[in-house]
# Entry
Amino acid sequence: EATASVPFRDGHLAPTAPRAIVLRMLANLEGAYARRRRPADALWTVQLAQLARPGEVGLRAREAALLEAVGRYDEAEAVADGLLAELPQGPDREAALRRRDAIRELRWRMN
# Structure
C-alpha cells in the first residue's frame, strides 16, 4: 500500500527516448565503476556514451581523465589535445590545458 502526498497521474510515465535511457544507464554504470575504483570499466562506459553523443565536451574530458587513470597516456594526451583545439578561451579551456599538461608530465615520467 503506497501513501504518497502527490497523486499518481499518467503523465508521470511520459515516454523516454531509447537513447536517453541508454545514456542514463551508461552514466549510472560509470558512477558505479568509479566508486569501485574500476577506471577501465568506467572508460568503456564513457566511450560507449560518445557513440550516442559524439563531440560532447564533458564526455571527452572524462575520457582523457580515465585514459590517464589506466596509464594510456599517449591516448589521453591525444584526446586532451583534440579537446583543447575545440574549446574557446575560458575556465573550461584552462582546466583542459592543466589536465593535458599533467598527462604530458606523467607520460614523460613513464618513459
